[in-house]
Amino acid sequence: MLTTQSLRDYALNVVQVDKIGVANIERFDAAPPDMDPRNIMPKARSVVVFLKRIIRGTCRGVDEGTHWSSYHVYSYAGLSAMLGTAKDKLLRFIEQNGYDATPLSAIGTSREFGPTAPPAAPGLPPREVVVQHRIAGTLAGLGEIGWSKVFLTKEFGPRQRLGIILTDAELEPDPIETGALCDRCKRCVVECPGGAIDRDRSVSIDVEGHHIEWNDLDLGKCKLTHFGLNKLSGPFFAKRFPGVRMAVGEQEVTWLEAWDLGWAMFPTMPALSALSASPVAACGARGCIIGCMKHLEAEGAVENTFSTRPIFSDGRPWRLSEEPGHRFEDHKGFTWNPDAPEAEEPARDEPRNDEGWY
């Protein structure tokens, strides 16, 4: 017989996820139609959410400004692949116990993609229904959404990625726990290089007496930075387009516009395209994960502790210049190459005429 405990034992001991929780479907009663799990699986009775930790050391190279690949290769794209493998094993376990199981993807997470399109047929819900992973994680009792909108757990702070499975098995739900981790220090606001995290505006929901609130994130600025177009937080765009002044904090773009621009620019930046066939997490989550992690560790709020001191790294986060790397005077609108020798005037035997021409 499938129970929450038997599923948890299998997930932790065999699949080796780091944490797993269950939400009963009634906790999603107030969800809008394009975020309601029942519009994906009408007879769903439980929402199973699990996570794998982001290895702390993979953030080191981004924090030091010297090595970007370990965060993306291992703790972003690589970790997403590991979640997929874990999800497959959990799906098979649920099926073997006689229940249906539907996997959800973390890829489609924007309401700008499918939900604005018409439904597949009259009377049906919107296409591309998306269950918000962080809300689901909160309702499954794994942790809480921090002010930055990043998901926090008492075990790892902001260091994890989530996976979701819907099932028609009626499992015992885990209790919701909120208000224990994020103390609204707003360090994420200060340290986000894209200026994407608002200090005051927020979005909130209320479920079973819990007020769940996070900042009204500027998804456009977040995505521009995430895709490596922020000159303050990565050298790749600046190296490829040194004369472009891309002040991300001044942009007024939607998530989809930023997504499209990122996909257009990504292939032109060799260092990033060498890491992946698709745009990478070039920002390294400098404010929302690394800044938050440092604060929670300093406060002793995270169970996964380390013997090294100071805690990870201290001091203000580094920033590059977002000003152009060359000026009009350097190139007059023609080709600019800082390594090229200075051009010399060609030798001429004949004198210039009055207009300066030979």
Describe the protein's architecture and organization:
With 358 residues, the chain is of the alpha+beta class. The chain has one domain (4-319). It contains 12 helices and 8 strands. The strands form 3 sheets. The chain has a 4-stranded antiparallel sheet, with helices on both faces. It has a two-stranded antiparallel sheet with strand order 4-5. The longest helix is centred in the N-terminal third of the chain and has 20 residues, at 77-96. The chain is elongated.
Topology:
Blueprint lengths: L3 H12 L3 E6 L21 E8 L6 H5 L4 H7 L1 H20 L4 E4 L28 H7 L4 E2 L5 E2 L7 E8 L19 H5 L10 E6 L2 E6 L3 H8 L9 H5 L14 H11 L4 H4 L12 H13 L29 H4 L27
Antiparallel strand pairs: 1-2, 2-6, 3-6, 4-5, 7-8
Features:
alpha+beta, two-stranded antiparallel sheet, 358 residues
